[in-house]
Specification:
Shape: globular
Number of helices: 5
CATH class: Alpha Beta
Distance between the termini: 29 Å
Oligomer: single chain
Number of domains: 1
Radius of gyration: 20 Å
Number of strands: 9
Structural class: alpha+beta
CATH architecture: 3-Layer(aba) Sandwich
Low-confidence stretches: 174-189, 199-222
Order of helices and strands: EHHEEEHEHEEEEH
Mean pLDDT: 80
CATH topology: Aminopeptidase
CATH superfamily: Gcn5-related N-acetyltransferase (GNAT)
């Protein structure tokens, strides 16, 4: 295979249409139904972390972006990586890894602590991503737990993150329930049921009712 040369440049507003075409080529139109895509829906990518890869023959060879998310009741800020896409004719040239290494270094320098994504562990492990411990993070929709990955930009950052992952516009106000948000997956429901059962054992006799706040999320891609 012939090795190609490429350059990394920040995304500009005029790159939007080309980026969308590349994403459709790489992931298909069904990408818009995925949980990570829906988390990004209606949000703005984190400024300064969206980059393109260009070659002398392909103006848009690859693209990467990051999005702000908040985790758990403490609303710990983190980055959601994605989409990361490389043109099918140029895959295997190190473009994806270069995009990740460059932007992750920028994120670390800016003081970001934790990055999460949904993807194949063998691919992303090349830059340090690992599978999230079981049930630690809850995505607002169906996600294969084997594909939910994390990277600590600051050692121990995952220790401060646990619970439901939400985008900025979907953070509950005053922790109120929102019936328009998607239902969390079964692991989260089991956790909440366990907490309710524990409280029930501690209550006085005949006190059968207890108010429970249900936190969820709107419709959401990759």
């Amino acid at each position: 295979m012939t090795t190609i040369s490429f350059s990394l440049v920040p995304c500009a507003p005029g790159d939007h249409d080309g980026t969308e075409r590349l994403l459709d080529i790489c992931f298909g139109l069904g990408r818009r139904t995925r949980t990570s895509y829906r988390l990004r829906e209606g949000e703005e990518a984190v400024p300064g972390l969206s980059f393109l890869a260009r070659t002398d023959k392909v103006a848009l060879a690859g693209v990467i972006s990051y999005w702000r998310v908040f985790i758990g009741e403490r609303a710990m800020p983190a980055l959601l990586l994605g989409p990361l896409a490389v043109h099918p004719n140029l895959q295997g040239q190190g473009i994806g890894r270069a995009l990740m290494q460059h932007t992750l270094a920028l994120a670390r320098a800016r003081g970001e602590r934790l990055v999460i994504l949904v993807g194949d562990e063998p691919y992303y492990a090349r830059v340090g991503f690992r599978k999230v411990p079981e049930w630690r993070l809850v995505m607002p929709g169906h996600v294969d737990p084997e594909r939910l990955l994390y990277l600590e930009l600051v050692e121990g950052a995952l220790d401060d993150a646990a619970g439901l992952v939400l985008s900025p516009s979907r953070l509950p106000q005053k922790r109120a329930a929102s019936t328009t948000l998607a239902v969390p997956h079964q692991a989260y429901q089991r956790e909440q049921q366990g907490k309710r059962d524990q409280r029930a054992e501690q209550r006085e006799p005949f006190n059968f009712f207890d108010s429970v706040a249900v936190v969820g999320l709107k419709a959401e891609p990759t």
